[in-house]
User: What shape does this take?
Amino acid sequence: METIDIARLKSGEVNLGTSIMAVQFKDGVVVGADSRTTTGSYIANRVTDKLTHVHDRIYCCRSGSAADTQAIADIVHYYLQLHAQTSGAPPSVHTASTMFQKLCYDNKDALSAGIIVAGWDKEAGPSVYNIPLGGGLFKQPWAIGGSGSTYVYGYCDATYQEGWDRDQTVEFVKNTLALAMSRDGSSGGVIRMCVITEDKVERLFVPGDQLPKFWQGKEVLGTETKDADLAGAVAMAVDA
Assistant: This one.
């Protein structure tokens, strides 16, 4: 059976090479993402909003092909509005994530989409669902995705604790995304976050010049050698 070459199929496509994240806390969830969109090595947009509203208390974070993920989010948004009208109640986060999962799985050979769905509902309270490439569906207390996520899995495993409040969770998301953006060439720009609780949806923004700073190393090659360092140096004998 002939397989589809995704690399060829998606050649030159606008790509959300990205760092996305969602973390659950007692009263809600915090979703966050960087803002860099690339076309190959060219930065097509440095202030992209990768946090997409799909219902009143449900958001998704998008990674992969910009066109694919925008189309999927639009379709799910349409069906969730229809669901709310026909049932007379807002949809659950599980319902939304199942819609995303079905679209991603049924079209897995044609799509490049990794999506995190998070929000709050009356049935389950706050919840986070991860839908990686291929269309799996996994409920987790925290989820990360995109090209930048590979750099910060260890940090998340070592740092995350259950029982955090809102401010601790926001700080965790901000630090994790800043670390991912500093290492991943396809992630960058600013950090956008969204705090979703029963009462409201709160948008947060961290400009690029106010990102948390971590150890970045020192320049070694190309540094000038001080004369004092050479004072005790002994020339090495070289045979003629």
